[in-house]
Amino acid sequence: MPNATPTLRLEGVAKSFGPVAALRSGTLIVQPGSIHALVGENGAGKSTLVKIVGGVHRRDAGVVELDGEPVDFHGPAEAKAAGVAVIHQEPASFPDLTVAENIFLGREPLGRFRRIDRRAMREGVRELFRNLGVDLDPDRPAEGLSIADQQIVEIAKAISLDARLLVMDEPTAALSAVEVRRLFAVARGLRDAGHAVVFISHRLDEVADLCDTVTVMRDGEHVSTDAVADVTPDQLVRRMVGREVAELYPKVPSTPGEVVLQVEGLESTGTFHDVSFEVRAGEIVGLAGLVGAGRSEIARAVFGVDRYDAGRVVVGGRNLRQGDPAAAIAAGLALVPEDRRLQGLVTESSVARNVSAVSRRRLARLGILLPDAEARLARDWSGRLEVKAGALDAVTTTMSGGNQQKVVLAKWLATGPKVLIVDEPTRGIDVGTKAEVHRLLSTLAAEGLAVLMISSELPEVLGMADRVLVVREGRIAAELSRAEATPEAVMRAATPGASESESAA
Amino acid sequence: MRTHARPWWQRALLTREMLTILILVVAWVVASAAVQGFDGPLTITYLVLDVAPVLLIALPMTLIIATGEIDLSVASVVGLSSVTFGLLHQAGLGLWVALLVSVLLGAVCGAVNGALVAYAGLPSLAVTIGSLALYRGLAVGLLGTTAVTGFPESWTDGATENLGESPYPVITLGLLLMIAVFAVVLHATPFGRDVLDIGRSSEAARFSGVDVKRTLLILFVLSGAVSALAGVYYTLRYGSARGDNATGMELQVVAAVLLGGVSIFGGRGAIHGVVAGVLLIGVLGSALRLEGVTVNVINIVIGSALVVSVVAPRIAGGLRVRRRSAAIAPHEPPRFAAGAHGDPDGGSAVGQGT
Amino acid sequence: MSVLSLLRRREAGIALALLVVIGVTTAIQPGFLLSAGGWRDLLLTPSILVVLAVGQAVVVITRNVDLSVGSVLGLTAYLTGRLFIDAPDLPIVVVALVAVAAGTLLGLLNGSIVAFARVPALVITLGTLYVYRGVTLTWAGSDRIDAGDMPRAFLGLGTRQVLGVPVLTFIAAIVLVAVAYYLYTARGGRQLYAIGSDPDAAALQGLPVRRRLLWAFALNGALAGLAGVMFAARYGTVSSGAGAGLELQVVGAVVVGGVAIFGGSGTAVGAALGAMLLLTINRALPVVGIPDFWQRAVVGALIIGAIALDRVLANRRSRRLAAARDAEPPPGSAPPGSAPPGGGPNDAGPDDREEATA
Amino acid sequence: GSGDEGGGGGGGGDDVTITMLPKNLGNPYFEASTAGAEEAAEELGATVEEVGPDAASPDAQVPFINTAAQQGVSALVVSANDPTAIGDALEEARSAGTKVVTFDSDTEPQFRDLFVNQASAEGIADKQLELISDQIGGEGEIAILSASANATNQNAWIALMEEKLASDYPDIELVETAYGDDDDQTSFDKTAALLQSHPDLKGIVSPTTVGIAAAARYVSTSEYKGKVAVTGLGTPNQMREYVEDGTVEAFALWNPNDLGYLATQAAAALAAGDITGEEGDTFEAGRLGEFTVGADGEVLLGEPYVFDKSNIADFDF
Ligand SMILES: Nc1ncnc2c1ncn2[C@@H]1O[C@H](COP(=O)(O)OP(=O)(O)OP(=O)(O)O)[C@@H](O)[C@H]1O
Ligand SMILES: Nc1ncnc2c1ncn2[C@@H]1O[C@H](COP(=O)(O)OP(=O)(O)OP(=O)(O)O)[C@@H](O)[C@H]1O
Ligand SMILES: [Mg+2]
Ligand SMILES: [Mg+2]
C-alpha cells in the first residue's frame, strides 16, 4: 500500500442514534489517487460513516483526518468547503428548482452585479452531462425526474465540486449498465488526476471492476481492508455476513394451494405496464428487479394506496375496488411497505397503537375502544414476534430498525390476512433478525398464507421464493421457477440494455 | 412486556395539557385572591357565556388541527349562520326549523372546505382563508345594513339564563355534553385514533387502511355544523343577527387550541387541554378587565402566552434531546434523506453561516 | 425567455384576469380608467398591498407565513406619525428609515423565534400579531395622528404624481423590481426557493437555512415597515387600529398570485399582480352594479378559484411529465412514480410523547 | 339581584364610581367626551374609568358591561354599538344595582335609565341637509358615507334624511349610501369608489367624524377639490386643515366634551337617587345648567353647532 499521507483517515469512529448504535467503530483509510470500495450488509453503517465524513452527522467518538489534519465538521457546508463531495444514498433534489439550479445551488456562476449567470450555468451543466454521457435538459424542473435521473443529477453535482475526496453511496443502484460504465470512466479519470474516491455498492462485480482497495464493515464495525486483487467475492460475502449464507434462508417446503391473489393487465402511465401475475396460498413469490423498476408501485396499486389506469386485481375470486385500502384489508390483503418509517409505522405512536392500528375497529365495543383490548392485542402479537421494547406505550421512533419491522409485521399479522405483500422486509435489519423474519415468512407460508415478497437483495429472493418474477422498467420481464432462478438469470432479466456482462454477487 | 413505561400518575402529570391546566388553576387562584370582584358568582356566569362560542368551535378545531390541517373560516360560518337564522326567523319560520337549516347550511360550508382540502388536495390554510372571505361576504351580503332582532324571549333567555339559583348558565349542560362527546370521539374511538394517526403521518395512516380523505371531510363538516350552532347561540345571546357577528374569532379559537397543547403539525392534542386553554384566555381577560387593564394589555398577554407555550417546551425539550430539523413550519414528510432526520446533532448541522 | 414561455407562465393568467376586469369595468364606466382620478386610483389603491404581498411572498416561498404584518404596519404607521410630532425637525427620509428599521426589527424577532426555536411560523406570528397590536394600542391609547400632525411634504407623497404615476406606486414598483430581481438572480434568492422546496434537503446541502429564514422574515418586516410609512402618507390619519385584519388579505393576495402556500414556488411579480387584482376587483364591483356588501364574497371565491386552478395546472404538468417518461426511453432504468402531490403538513417532529388518554 | 349587598355595602352614595364605555377606544370623538366626563366627575367628587374594545362591535362591548356589573360600579355610561345586542348585559348590570346612561348612540329604551341625546335626530338630519343643499346650490347628486351598517344613530339620521330629501329637496338625488365602518382606510377607499362610480356627484354627506375626515382628505388631494362638496358631522381638530384649504365649507357637530359632561352629570344624579329617569325629572348639570328628562327617558343636549372658517379656530377637540 502507498505510504503517502492518506486523503481520508477515520479511526474508531462511533455514532449512535438514541439506543441504536449505527456505527460502533468505523475505520477507513483512503489514499489519494485510489478508488476505495466500502461494502457491507444493509445496516452495516456505511451510510452513517459517509454522513459523518460529509458533515451531516457529528461523530460521538473517534478520529477523522483529511490530508493528515484532524477535522470536525459542524455541517455539510464545512465539509464541502474542505473539499469533500458526497453523493448520498437518497438523492435530495429540490423539485421546484431546475436541474441546473439543483446542480449549482449555492455556487452559481456569477456575472456582473453578483447576478447569477444562467448562460454560464447552463453551459457548465451541459459540459458535465457530456462527460457523463447523458442527455437531460438543464432547464427542466427536477420535479418528476426518475430516480436514475435524480442520481445522475447528484453525481453531476458532486463531480462539479472538483473535490479532493469524492464519496459515492450506492450511486449505481438505479443506473443502467451504460450509465454505470460512463460513471466508472469519470471516477477513473478523477483517480488518475490524484483525487481519492470512496465507492459504496452491493454489487461485488462492480467493486472488482472499479476499485483497488476494499473495506468490509459489519454491524457498525470495521472487519477488514485489502487490495481488491487479494480477496475473492466469496471471502467478501463471508466477512460481510459473518456466517455461512445458507442458514439465513430457512426455507420450509410447502405445497401451493389455490390462487388467492390474481393481477391482470395492471397499467399505470409512467410507472408500470401490463402487469399480470398470480399468487397461490402457501406460496412465496419473489418480485426482483433494480431499484426504481417499479415493484413497489405495483404492490401499492394492488393494495389500493395508489390508483391504476387499467387492469384488475382479484382476491379470493372477487374483484377488488381500486384505490381503497380498506376494501383490500377486508378482502384479506396486507402490505408491509418498503419505507417503514414513513409508511409502515406511525413512528410517533406507541407500540400498542401501531400494532392495533388496523385491527382497532374490530376491537371497539359499541364504538368505544378500550385501552385494555388494545394492550392485550399488542402484548399478544409483540410477544409472538419477540418485539424488544421497554413497554407497550414506548414510542416506536426510538426502536431499532429490526424491531420496528417486527411491529409492522405484527400489525398486519394481527389482521389475519390471506395474502401478505412484503416490500423489502429486511432492509436495514441486522443479520439475526433477518433470519427470524425469514423463518417467520416461511412458517406462515407453510401454514397456507400467500406471500408476495419484494426484495432488492438477490440472495434473499433466491433463498426464500418458490417462484421469481423479474420486473424491468415497469414490466414483468421474466418468470423463473425456483430451479431456474440463478443470480445470472435474474440480473440478466432485470437489467435494461440486454444481457451485458452484468452478474450478481 | 410491561404495558406502561411510567406509573399512571406520572403519565397524567407529565403532559403538555397539565401545564395549561396548572397555569389555569394558578391564574384562577391568584385572580380570586388579588382581583376585587373576581370571586363573585357573576364571574362564572359571564365566563361561561363569554367563552361558550369559542369553546364550541375549539372542539372540532382540535380534531382538525390534530390532523395537521386548519379551518380559518369558522368565524365567518358563525356570521353566516347568524344571518340565516335571523332571516328565517324574520320570514316567519319556526325557530327550531331555522336552527336546523342554519346548522345544515354550516355543514354544507364545512363540506365545501372539506371537499377542497381532502378530495382536491388543496392546502387547508389557503382554502379556508378564501372561504373566510367568501362566507363572511355572503353573510354581510344577505343581511346588508340591517340586523334582525326580536327573537322570542323564551329563546334569548334560554341562551343566558342560569340553572336555578346556581351561577351556572343553562348552556353549561350543553357545553359539558359537547365536551364529553368530543373527548370520547378523540380519545376513545377508532375514529379518534385515525385522526391522530393522520396528523402524525397521513402516509402511514393511508397504508393502514384509514380513509384519510373521508376523515378530513367529516371533520370539516363537523367544524362547519358546530360553528353554525355557535352562530345560533351568538345570535340568541345578543338577541341580534348580524353579518359581522364574531368577526376575527377564528384567530381566538386557533390561539386557544394551540394554547391547550395541540400541535399545529398535527398528531398531538387532547380535549381537556383545549378546554383549559379556552378557559385560561377567558379567565385572563376577565381578571385583567376587572383590574381595569385595557384590551391592549390583554392582547399582549394572550399573544405572549401563545408564543411561550410553543417555544418553552421546545427549549425545555431541546435541552434534553436536541431534536431534528423542524425549522420549517407546516411541512411534508421528507421523501428522502431519512437519515438526516434523526440526527440529534441536527441543530448544528443546519444553517452554518460562514 | 421566449415570448411563448412568458405567456404560459402563471403570472400571465393573473395579468390577463386583471386586464379583463379593467376592460369590462371601463366599458361600463369609462371613468374607471379613462379619467385622471380613475387612472390614479387604479395605480394608487393597490400600492400598499403590493409592498406587503411582495414581502409576504418571500416568506411564503420558504414554506413559512407571517401573520403579524398587519400589526407591524399599524405599529410603524403610528411610529411614523409620532416621530413627526415628537421630533418635528427630523427629515422625512430619516423618519421613513426609522420606521423601516423598526419593521425590520419586528420581522427579525419573528424570524429568530421561528428559526432558532424551530417552531411553526403560523403559531408564532399569530402570537406576535396580538403582541405587536397590543403594543401599539398601549402606546397610542386613544391618541390618533391627524393629517395636521404631519408635514405637508410628507402627506404630499401619498397623493402626488410624477409623470402621471403616483409616488407611492413608484415606491411599490421599485420594491417589486428589487425583490423580483433578488429572487430570480441572486444566490440567496434561489436558496430561499430551495429551502421552501425541501427544507431537509436544504440542510443536507449545507445551505445556511437559519440565516436565510432570518433574512426572509427581516425583509418582510422591513417591507411591512415601509408599508406603514406609506399608510401614514396616504391616509393621513393613523389610529391604533391601522392595518388590523390586513394579514389575511395579504396572504390571500399572495395565494391568488400563484405563490404556493407550501413553499418552493411563485414569484414576487405574481404576488404583486394578485394584490392588484384583489383590490381592483374590489373597486370594480360597485361600478358593475354589485353592491358593496358582496365584495368580500367575490374576493373569497376568487382566492379559492385561484388555488384550485393552480392545482389543476400542477396535476396536468405531472401527468405530462409521467407520460413523457413513457414516451421517450429514459436513459436510466424504469421511471418510478412521481412524488405524491399535496401532502399534509405533518411529521415535523413535535415532542416525542404520547398524548394522555386518561 | 345577587350584587346588591356588595355594591350597597361598599360604596353607598358618597363613593360614586362611573364606568365610561365608548363605542371603541382610539377615537378622538370619544376622547373628547371622556374628557368631559372626567371634568364632571372631578366636580362631583366621583371617579370615572374609561374602558372599551378596540373595534366598534357590540359583542366586544358586552364583556366590559359584565365587568362593570361585577365591580358593582354606581353607573355605566355607554355609547351602544347595537340597539339590542348589549341589552341583556345592560339589564343584568342594572339588576346588580348599576345605573345605565346611554349617550351618543342609544339602545332600545327598556335597557337603560336615560339617554343623553346630542341633538334630536330631526335636528341633525335637517342641519346636514341644509348644509349640503347650500353648498351644492340646491340640486344634483349626493352620496352618504356612513359608519358601520348597523350603527343605530347613523341609520336613524339617514332614514330621516331620505324622507326629508323626498319631501323638501326635490332636485337633490341621493345616489348611494356607502359604509366606511368608522375606519380611516375603509372610509378613504369608499370615498374614492363613490367618486369613481358617480362621475356627476356634487356632494358627500358623512354623518360620522371618521368618515368626514377621510372623505375630506381624499377630496382635498384630488381633482374633485372645490367641485365636490363634503359636509356632515366632524370634529374641529380633524377638519381644521380642510376648512382652511377650502375643501370643506362648513360642517356640524355638537360639543362631544359637553356630551360626556352631561351624561356623567346625569349618571351621577341617577346614582345619587336625585332622579329616576321619569319624564319630567329635572337635574342640575354643573356648568351646563338645568336639564329636564323628556319622553322615553331622553335628555337633549341642544342643537348641532355649525363650524366654518370664521369660528373653527376657537375650538380644540
Ligand atoms: N437517523 C437514524 N436514526 C436511527 N437509526 C438510524 C439512523 N440512521 C441510520 N440508522 C440505523 O443505523 C444502522 C446503520 O444504517 P446505515 O444507513 O449506515 O446502513 P448502510 O450500511 O448504509 O445500509 P444500506 O446498505 O442499507 O444503505 C441501521 O440499523 C439504521 O437503521
Ligand atoms: N422522482 C421521485 N420523487 C420522489 N420519490 C420517488 C421518485 N422516484 C421514486 N421515488 C420513490 O422512491 C422509492 C423507490 O422507487 P420504486 O419504488 O419506484 O422502485 P422499486 O422497484 O420498488 O425499487 P426498490 O423497492 O428496490 O427501492 C419509491 O417509494 C418511490 O415512490
Ligand atoms: Mg446506506
Ligand atoms: Mg421499492
TrEMBL record, chain A:
GO terms for cellular component: plasma membrane. It comes from the Bacteria. Its main location: membrane. Residues 8-244, 255-498 form the ABC transporter domain. PROSITE patterns: ABC_TRANSPORTER_1, ABC_TRANSPORTER_2. SMART domains: AAA (SM00382). It is a peripheral membrane protein. GO terms for molecular function: ATP binding; ATP hydrolysis activity. InterPro entries: AAA+_ATPase, ABC_carbohydrate_import_ATPase, ABC_transporter-like_ATP-bd, ABC_transporter-like_CS, P-loop_NTPase. The keyword Signal does not apply. It is found in: Cell membrane. The keyword Transport applies. Keywords: ATP-binding, Cell membrane, Membrane, Nucleotide-binding, Repeat, Sugar transport, Translocase, Transport. This is Ribose import ATP-binding protein RbsA 1. It comes from Promicromonospora soli. The lineage of its organism: Bacteria, Bacillati, Actinomycetota, Actinomycetes, Micrococcales.
Automatic annotation (TrEMBL), chain B:
Residues 332-354 are annotated as: Disordered. GO terms for cellular component: plasma membrane. It comes from the Bacteria. It is a multi-pass membrane protein. One of its GO terms (molecular function) is transmembrane transporter activity. InterPro entries: ABC_transp_permease. The chain crosses the membrane at residues 43-65, 72-89, 95-121, 133-151, 171-191, 216-236, 273-290, 296-316. Keywords: Cell inner membrane, Cell membrane, Membrane, Transmembrane, Transmembrane helix, Transport. Pfam families: BPD_transp_2. The keyword Membrane applies. It is found in: Cell membrane. This is Autoinducer 2 import system permease protein LsrD. The lineage of its organism: Bacteria, Bacillati, Actinomycetota, Actinomycetes, Micrococcales.
UniProtKB/TrEMBL annotation, chain C:
The complex is composed of two ATP-binding proteins (LsrA), two transmembrane proteins (LsrC and LsrD) and a solute-binding protein (LsrB). This is Autoinducer 2 import system permease protein LsrC. Residues 320-358 are annotated as: Disordered. One of its GO terms (cellular component) is plasma membrane. Part of the ABC transporter complex LsrABCD involved in autoinducer 2 (AI-2) import. Probably responsible for the translocation of the substrate across the membrane. The chain crosses the membrane at residues 12-35, 42-61, 67-85, 92-115, 121-141, 162-184, 213-236, 248-281. Its main location: membrane. PANTHER family: ABC TRANSPORTER PERMEASE PROTEIN YPHD-RELATED-RELATED, AUTOINDUCER 2 IMPORT SYSTEM PERMEASE PROTEIN LSRC. It is found in: Cell membrane. The keyword GTP-binding does not apply. InterPro entries: ABC_transp_permease. Signal peptide: none annotated. Keywords: Cell inner membrane, Cell membrane, Membrane, Transmembrane, Transmembrane helix, Transport. The gene is rhaP. Residues 329-343 have a biased composition (Pro residues). It is a multi-pass membrane protein. GO terms for molecular function: transmembrane transporter activity.
